[in-house]
């Protein structure tokens, strides 16, 4: 019986499962015991207690409940992720393509960028941007003003924004109508192209129609969107979009760092497309742009997407490095709260849970995209 | 009879364009209008950046590095105990030399057995491969104030080179025991640092601590990673679930969260009378984190082993664990070497994160020195950060080049 593989399989699994459960039980036992011995709460009720710390760049007061502070941290992390991922994708693709440019200088410069950034610790890059560039900006009162469009000082960077004027609602409706009309034009051009074989130019047509309608609407409604310029009003910045300097530092550093990795992925994926593909494209007289757009990139994309997802995830996890320069994202707030005497195990469980949810959402979204792009094989 | 060679009609030689620098530039820099525009704009930027860099390098005040070089390298190691780090350095010089030499000899012997030409590494190749390290050593030594460190470094390099040739000359019977020598040397280096009234790793710092955390983290996490990877590929559902859960949970959270957990939560889940030191807790967190990543690296290697290999092993009647040990693992681990180097690089970069928790490793040292009274408020971050950046860059760049070389040499990914 002891040599029967079926029995052995069951025994091994039972033993392994029991061992893991036992370790978990011992850890749990220690945890509850230790929490009780130090007089810390064992549940999550403490989340409704007052925060007790100040969160810079937000209107949350130290007397708000803890869960509100944590949510604010999640919001700040998301602010990095949502702006960062598109940015790093664009820069990464541009640099990756530039590395393969026929222009020697462009290729070498892109290579230099990748090799330097990729081989530095991201935390060091953040420190560099923050301590060497941003902290050298003038103080608030002497903010650098670039054509009333951008205000820069060592605490905030504010850029010009938009405000809704009267008639903004109708204008939104016009934009919606213009979008629908543009989609109709797109469909019409596609059908015409299929019927009589003329080139469809559907993108140009749709864009032209959309722009025309929007412009007409804009002027007809007497300018429903106005500019909101950042102004220095005594000790505060008013108008425009204002971001903490620490936010811009983390964003710039991590985008540059992650883009260098994405550039390598893009380069590798383009090189992975067989030469014959690009020769065939040449043989049927596609222009260089068409060759890239219709032959090379769609195939390279399939190779590039899985490693790029993991770079997106890395970017999301690396936003936690903002803790080092005091930008109040999730990790920073958790760290502050633990320092303030909140129970560490629960806080850390929440922190890790938060990042797991981020990771899950990004994987889900990108996997959906990936499924659409996947090669359909037999 | 002689066969007359066929006479081909002579084709006029192709008009070979004049291959001068002008022609090269026209072809590679100015081949159409937008490339010309790009070239000019980029060239202007590059020249500006280079000028700024040179001006910055020449004009900077390096006193802050000169005065704190020891802090950058080994943290707050007592000044009267400096012979200890040096002794450890010599242990490692012997270690790397011997291991490198015996690996080279192994490759040589295998090539001879297989009847392949024996390619030995020339000094020129070594220089091409490792010039950044040599430059770094020269830069660091240029910041020393006495001649002793230079002499000792040259001595260490000489000892390493000697050990290399010794390792290469060792007969095969002795070479098989190199791993034992390696373990002894590592133990000796630790003893040199910590034994007999020395300083244990709780008191280490600077670049030394980054290297210690990286090496120990990878080495200790490797067996766990291997087990997790095999568990993930196991056909037993319970084992697979445990492995997958652990791997995915750890890979979903940032290292800094794991480090914070190590710093503040580990104390809660272990018995109250066990109080590991702070660096130890960081090390535990790093090992727990790395194990999950190494598991994924090893899994990649395991998947690269063709199924036929396992089937063949089963066909000749090998037991499962023997199949694993003799057939699968040797091939899988060989395929993972480049990815493991990659993991090593990323951990080396990530050891800077312990700075957030206030440990004086290299990156934190660049901040500590800026708050010394002599340099406070002088804005010398650019100098100290550049110095740290150079060290990290040289280490990561050299290793990533070596990993690409290994990848080509091992033929990973080509089949």
Write the layout of secondary structure elements.
The complex is a heterodimer of chains A (378) and B (415).
Chain A: H1 5-38, H2 66-99, H3 104-118, H4 122-133, E1 144-146, E2 150-152, E3 156-159, E4 161-164, H5 168-196, H6 202-220, E5 225-228, E6 231-233, E7 236-238, E8 241-244, H7 245-272, H8 275-283, H9 288-318, H10 330-339, H11 344-373
Antiparallel strand pairs in A: 1-2, 2-3, 3-8, 4-5, 6-7
Helix pairs in contact in A: 2-3, 2-7, 2-10, 3-7, 4-7, 5-6, 7-9, 8-9, 9-11, 10-11
Chain B: H1 21-28, H2 33-59, H3 63-74, H4 83-113, H5 123-142, H6 148-169, H7 172-175, H8 178-194, H9 206-232, H10 237-251, H11 255-269, H12 278-304, H13 307-315, H14 320-350, H15 362-368, H16 381-410
Secondary-structure element series of chain B? HHHHHHHHHHHHHHHH
Return the CATH topology of the domain at 66-113 and 246-373 in chain A. MetI-like fold
Largest interface: A-B, 55 and 53 residues
Strand elements of chain B, count:
0
Structural class of chain A: alpha+beta
Low-confidence stretches of chain A: none
Provide the CATH superfamily of the domain at 66-113 and 246-373 in chain A.
Answer: MetI-like
Strand content of chain A: 5-15%
Radius of gyration of chain A: 27 Å
Q: Which regions of chain B have little confidence, pLDDT < 50, spanning 5+ residues? A: none
CATH topology (fold) name of the largest domain in chain B: MetI-like fold
Average pLDDT of chain B works out at 83
Count of distinct structural domains of chain B: 2
Radius of gyration of chain B: 27 Å
Which CATH class of the domain at 66-113 and 246-373 in chain A applies here? Mainly Alpha
How many strand segments of chain A? 8
């Amino acid at each position: 019986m002891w040599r029967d593989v079926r029995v052995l399989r069951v025994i091994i699994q039972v033993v392994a499962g029991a061992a893991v459960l036992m370790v978990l039980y011992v850890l749990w036992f220690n945890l509850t015991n230790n929490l009780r011995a130090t007089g810390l709460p064992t549940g999550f009720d403490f989340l409704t207690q007052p925060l007790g710390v100040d969160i810079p760049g937000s209107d949350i007061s130290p007397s708000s409940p803890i869960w509100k502070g944590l949510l604010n941290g999640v919001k700040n992390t998301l602010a990095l992720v949502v702006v960062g991922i598109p940015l790093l994708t664009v820069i990464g693709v541009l640099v990756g393509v530039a590395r393969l440019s026929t222009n020697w200088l462009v290729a070498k410069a892109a290579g230099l960028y990748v090799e330097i950034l990729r081989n530095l610790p991201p935390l060091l890059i953040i420190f560099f941007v923050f301590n060497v560039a941003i902290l050298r900006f003038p103080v608030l009162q002497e903010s650098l003003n670039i054509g009333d469009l951008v205000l820069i000082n060592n605490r905030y960077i504010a850029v010009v924004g938009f405000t809704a004027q009267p008639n903004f609602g109708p204008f939104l409706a016009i934009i919606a109508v213009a979008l629908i009309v543009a989609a109709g034009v797109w469909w019409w051009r596609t059908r015409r192209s299929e019927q009589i074989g003329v080139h469809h130019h559907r993108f140009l047509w749709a864009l032209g129609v959309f722009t025309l309608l929007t412009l007409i609407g804009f002027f007809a409604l007497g300018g429903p969107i106005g500019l909101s310029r950042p102004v220095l009003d005594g000790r505060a910045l008013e108008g425009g979009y204002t971001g903490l300097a620490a936010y811009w530092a983390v964003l710039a550093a991590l985008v540059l760092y992650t883009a260098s990795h994405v550039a390598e992925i893009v380069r590798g994926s383009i090189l992975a497309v067989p030469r014959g593909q690009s020769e065939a494209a040449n043989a049927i007289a596609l222009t260089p742009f068409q060759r890239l757009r219709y032959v090379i990139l769609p195939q390279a994309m399939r190779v590039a997407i899985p490693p790029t997802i993991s770079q997106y995830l890395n970017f999301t996890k690396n936003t936690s490095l903002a803790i080092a320069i005091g930008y109040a994202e999730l990790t920073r707030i958790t760290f502050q709260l633990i320092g303030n005497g909140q129970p560490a195990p629960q806080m850390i469980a929440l922190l890790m849970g938060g990042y797991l949810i981020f990771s899950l959402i990004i994987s889900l979204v990108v996997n959906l995209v990936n499924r659409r792009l996947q090669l359909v094989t037999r | 009879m002689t066969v007359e060679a066929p006479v081909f009609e002579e084709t006029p030689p192709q008009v070979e364009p004049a291959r001068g620098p002008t022609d090269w530039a026209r072809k590679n820099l100015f081949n159409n209008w937008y490339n010309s525009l790009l070239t000019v704009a980029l060239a202007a930027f590059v020249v500006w950046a280079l000028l700024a860099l040179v001006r910055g390098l020449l004009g900077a005040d390096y006193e802050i590095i000169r005065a704190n070089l020891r802090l950058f390298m080994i943290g707050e190691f007592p000044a009267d105990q400096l012979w200890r780090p040096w002794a450890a350095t010599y242990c490692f010089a012997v270690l790397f030399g011997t291991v490198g030499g015996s690996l080279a000899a192994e490759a040589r012997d295998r090539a001879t057995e297989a009847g392949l030409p024996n390619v030995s590494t020339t000094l020129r190749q070594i220089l091409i491969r490792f010039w950044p390290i040599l430059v770094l050593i020269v830069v660091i030594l240029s910041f020393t104030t006495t001649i002793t460190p230079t002499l000792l470094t040259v001595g260490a390099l000489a000892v390493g080179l000697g050990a290399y040739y010794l390792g290469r000359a060792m007969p095969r019977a002795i070479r098989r025991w190199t791993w034992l020598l390696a373990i002894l040397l590592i133990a000796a280096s630790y003893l040199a640092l910590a034994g007999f009234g020395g300083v244990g790793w709780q008191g280490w710092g600077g670049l030394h601590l980054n290297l210690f955390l990286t090496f120990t983290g990878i080495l200790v996490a490797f067996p766990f990673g291997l087990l997790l990877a095999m568990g993930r590929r196991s056909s037993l559902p319970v084992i697979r679930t445990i492995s997958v859960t652990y791997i995915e949970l750890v890979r979903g959270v940032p290292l800094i969260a794991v480090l914070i957990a190590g710093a503040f939560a580990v104390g809660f889940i272990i018995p109250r009378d066990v109080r590991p030191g702070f660096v130890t807790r960081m090390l535990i967190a790093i090992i727990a984190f790395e194990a999950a990543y190494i598991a994924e690296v090893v899994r990649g290697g395991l998947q690269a082993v063709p199924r036929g290999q396992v089937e063949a092993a089963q066909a000749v009647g090998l037991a499962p664990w023997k199949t694993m040990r003799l057939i699968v693992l040797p091939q899988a681990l060989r395929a993972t070497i480049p990815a493991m180097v990659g993991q090593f690089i990323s951990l080396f970069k990530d050891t800077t994160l312990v700075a957030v928790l206030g440990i004086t490793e290299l990156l934190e040292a660049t901040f500590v020195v800026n708050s010394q009274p002599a340099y406070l408020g002088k804005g010398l971050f650019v100098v100290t950060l550049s110095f740290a950046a150079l060290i990290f860059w040289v280490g990561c760049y050299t290793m990533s080049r070596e990993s690409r070389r290994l990848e080509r040499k091992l033929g990973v990914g080509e089949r």
